[in-house]
Design the sequence.
């Protein structure tokens, strides 16, 4: 099984990133699959317009993944921009991708509906570059959140169109969605996203994480009353980082009354800080390491070899050779 996925470097990771993608990426490296993970810096250019910020974000994502346990000896880990074949294939796929298919992409329709003044061609053709990211490695599966499922389906549609026009070339990928955490809710009840300002950080200062958790939106009830268990964000996040016994104990406190959301948030804060303590310490050590460039170049060399093999077939099929 070949698995391909990327993460866009547009800021520090949060619990939504970890639970929705990063945790699974790291777990898959030990399941015998061939995993390729890349820092999607080409994609970041649709919104990040400051060179210093992009450099910081790119490096930060690498440090975050390595600190959380990604092993570059078990996976191919690289910068998207270090493999120019991604952009090369994207242009070729642009030439076969139906315009109407891209117009129906949820992300584009959402941007249009919101009247986003920063809309650019890159945002419109974003799904085509994502298709190239996937198809150039003939991925069997692509780990994504529920909101990204359509992009994998678009990649399949484009691959089928190319295969129909030029002959069998690309494997048709399947989305891989971890059902239990298909969508991670943020502190305000919406999907957790940096753009909504409702995230809970992993590697920020403890004071920042405390402020975020204490700001979780909760039901308005009297302190003496039992707290509802249904649709409770604190409980749903606590469950991700605790044992079943610890979760049941917290639920019992909810039902007993007299506990309050303040104590529940404090319990979640302690659990999050404890869970990520080793990763936070490891990241501080990695920040001074001189091996990061070497790790990323090693991954890029492996990725370029695979990508060039695919491109040679594409040249042959299209007549570009």
Sequence:
């Amino acid at each position: 099984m070949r698995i391909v996925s990327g993460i866009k470097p547009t800021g520090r990771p949060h619990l939504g990133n970890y639970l929705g993608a990063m945790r699974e990426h790291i777990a898959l490296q030990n399941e015998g699959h061939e995993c390729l993970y890349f820092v999607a810096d080409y994609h970041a250019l649709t919104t990040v317009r400051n060179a210093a910020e992009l450099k910081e974000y790119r490096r930060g994502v690498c440090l975050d993944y390595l600190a959380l346990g990604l092993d570059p000896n078990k996976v191919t880990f690289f910068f998207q921009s270090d493999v120019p074949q991604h952009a090369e294939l994207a242009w070729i796929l642009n030439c076969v991708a139906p315009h109407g298919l891209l117009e129906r992409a949820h992300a584009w329709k959402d941007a249009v509906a919101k009247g986003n003044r920063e809309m650019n061609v890159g945002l419109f053709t974003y799904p085509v570059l994502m298709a190239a990211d996937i198809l150039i490695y003939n991925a069997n599966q692509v780990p994504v959140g529920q909101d990204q499922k359509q992009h994998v389906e678009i990649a399949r549609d484009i691959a089928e169109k190319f295969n129909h026009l030029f002959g069998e070339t690309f494997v048709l990928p399947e989305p891989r969605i971890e059902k239990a955490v298909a969508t991670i809710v943020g502190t305000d009840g919406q999907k957790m996203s940096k753009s909504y300002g409702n995230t809970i950080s992993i590697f920020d200062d403890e004071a920042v994480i405390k402020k975020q958790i204490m700001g979780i939106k909760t039901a308005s009830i009297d302190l003496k009353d039992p707290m509802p268990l249904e649709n409770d964000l604190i409980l749903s996040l606590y469950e991700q980082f605790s044992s079943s016994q610890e979760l049941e104990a917290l639920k019992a406190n909810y039902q007993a009354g007299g506990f309050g959301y303040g104590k529940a948030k404090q319990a979640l804060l302690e659990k999050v800080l404890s869970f990520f303590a080793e990763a936070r310490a490891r990241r501080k050590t990695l920040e001074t390491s001189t091996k990061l460039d070497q790790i990323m170049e090693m991954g890029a060399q492996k990725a370029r070899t695979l990508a060039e093999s695919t491109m040679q077939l594409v040249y042959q099929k299209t007549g570009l050779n």
Observations:
- The radius of gyration is 21 Å.
